[in-house]
Amino acid sequence: MNNKNKSISKEEKLITLIDKYITDTYNEKDEIFTYKLYLIFVGYHLKYFQPHAIYSDSVSNIDNVMQMFCGLFKCMKSNFISNLQNKEVLFIQLNTLVDYIEGNQIRLEQVYVELKAQYEKREITNRIKNKSDIRKRVRL
Description:
Blueprint: H1 2-6, H2 10-25, H3 33-49, H4 61-75, H5 87-103, H6 105-134
Helix pairs in contact: 2-4, 3-4, 3-5, 3-6
C-alpha cells in the first residue's frame, strides 16, 4: 500500500483522503459536514498546491479551490475511482460542496483568507524555531 501511495498524484491522494473522511465521519444529519469538507479542500490547497503555484492562477482563492476541484474530477475518470469505498456518497458530497461554495462565496473567501493567515503564521514560526535551534550563540 505504501508503494501504491507514492505513485499516485496529489489529486488522487486528496480523493482518497476525502473518501476516508466520508467513511469515518459522514452523517446525513450533520449540518456542517459540507463546511468541514470545504476546510479539508482549503487545507490541502494551502499545504500542497498553493506553495507550488498549482491551481493558483486566480486572485480569488475560491477560484483556485475550484480549479483544484476540477483537477480532482479529471482523476476520477480512471480506474482509481473504482477502488474507493464510498464513491456514490463522494460524488454526492462533491456536488453538494460545489453548490455550497457557489452560494457562500464571500463568506468562504473570508474563511480561506483566515486559514491562509494561520497557516502562514505557523510556517513562519516553524522556520524561526528551526533556524534558532541550528544557530549557535556568540558569547561576549
